[in-house]
TrEMBL record:
Residues 134-285 form the PIN domain. This is Telomerase-binding protein EST1A-like. One of its GO terms (cellular component) is telomerase holoenzyme complex. Transmembrane segments: none annotated. The gene is LOC113990491. One of its GO terms (molecular function) is telomeric DNA binding. It comes from the Eukaryota. Pfam families: PIN_4. InterPro entries: Est1/Ebs1-like (IPR045153), PIN-like_dom_sf (IPR029060), PIN_dom (IPR002716).
Length: 307
């Protein structure tokens, strides 16, 4: 007899937990279970009726889910109820409900922000860039990782390779490497060797007066030689990426009379003859915000060879 009473008590506990769960989920004040004919039966309204009576989000969710009514197994009326774990279970369910509500609210705020941005963009005047590549401005990593591709672009004689002076200074620093060169190993040694090759290539081409190669200071001054290439950047705002970008902006002389259309509804068209060559994500973002065309070197080289 004792094992049977334990089974009945366990069933009673499950029924109690289900009752608390349904009350928390549906928000019903009326009891969901009734004792009829010696057994507990469900008196919860079906999902369709509940959605109409409540008119709330919970009713709609139940209507969409189209779940079957909860079926409760009958047990004898002399069973012993054990509801000791019910309070803890209901607290846990309420905590989960609040967490889900916060998550839904956060998603809604995110959607509202996206819609606000899209609305602002739709009201802004559209802008188009017409790109006719003439000047190519590579960053430091371009010489470290793609020196052969830069040489190919220079030798095709279709473009002018503009090297910011800050890039040459960075290559000098990388070529010198650590004070104890014999300790340099692995990737650091590889970068040092590539920087040396890049400096040797630039010095050789500048010495031969290559008319498709230029050096440019951050203030927009062109240099015919890089024999004296130290640059005072004190007072300049931003980091080295900003100095490289300023060299690109030197070739973006926008005048309102040149690009403003006569019809106010037509998009603004800007002409760009400069392309920034870099793999750096942060520098690419900065360039795009300033309406400077940017590509990675392998992609631009493929386009130049096909064109």
């Amino acid at each position: 007899m004792e094992p049977k009473r334990k089974v009945i008590a366990a069933d009673c506990k499950r029924v109690t937990v289900l009752k608390y769960f349904l009350e928390a989920l549906c928000g019903q004040e009326e009891p969901l279970l009734a004792f009829k004919g010696g057994k507990y039966v469900s008196v919860a309204p079906v999902p369709d009726a509940m959605g109409k009576e409540m008119g709330s989000q919970e009713g709609k969710q139940l209507e969409d889910q189209k779940e079957d009514d909860v079926r409760i197994e009958a047990f004898e009326d002399d069973s012993e109820t054990e509801g000791s774990g019910g309070e803890m279970d209901i607290k846990e369910l309420r905590a989960k409900k609040q967490a889900l509500a916060r998550k839904v609210a956060e998603q809604q705020r995110r959607q509202d922000k996206i819609q606000a941005v899209l609305k602002d963009q739709s009201q802004m005047r559209q802008m188009e860039l017409e790109i006719r590549p003439v000047f190519l401005v590579p960053d430091t990593n371009g010489f470290i990782d793609h020196l052969s591709s830069l040489i190919t672009l220079l030798d095709c004689r279709k473009f002018i390779l503009v090297v910011p002076l800050i890039v040459i200074n960075e290559l000098d620093g990388l070529a010198k490497g650590p004070e104890m060169e014999h300790r340099a190993a692995g990737y650091a040694r590889q970068v040092q060797e590539r920087a040396r090759k890049s400096i040797e290539f630039l010095e050789e081409r500048f010495e031969s007066r290559d008319n498709c190669l230029r050096a440019l200071t951050s203030r927009g001054n062109e240099l015919e030689s890089i024999s004296f290439r130290s640059e005072d950047t004190t007072g300049q705002q931003g980091n080295n990426d900003d100095l490289i970008l300023s060299c690109c902006l030197h070739y973006c002389n926008d005048k309102a009379k040149d690009f403003m259309p006569s019809n106010k509804d037509d998009p603004i068209r800007l002409l760009r003859e400069v392309v920034l060559l870099t793999d750096d994500r942060n520098l690419r973002v900065k360039a795009l915000t300033r309406n400077v065309p940017v590509r990675d070197i392998p992609t631009f080289l493929k386009w130049a060879q096909e064109g």
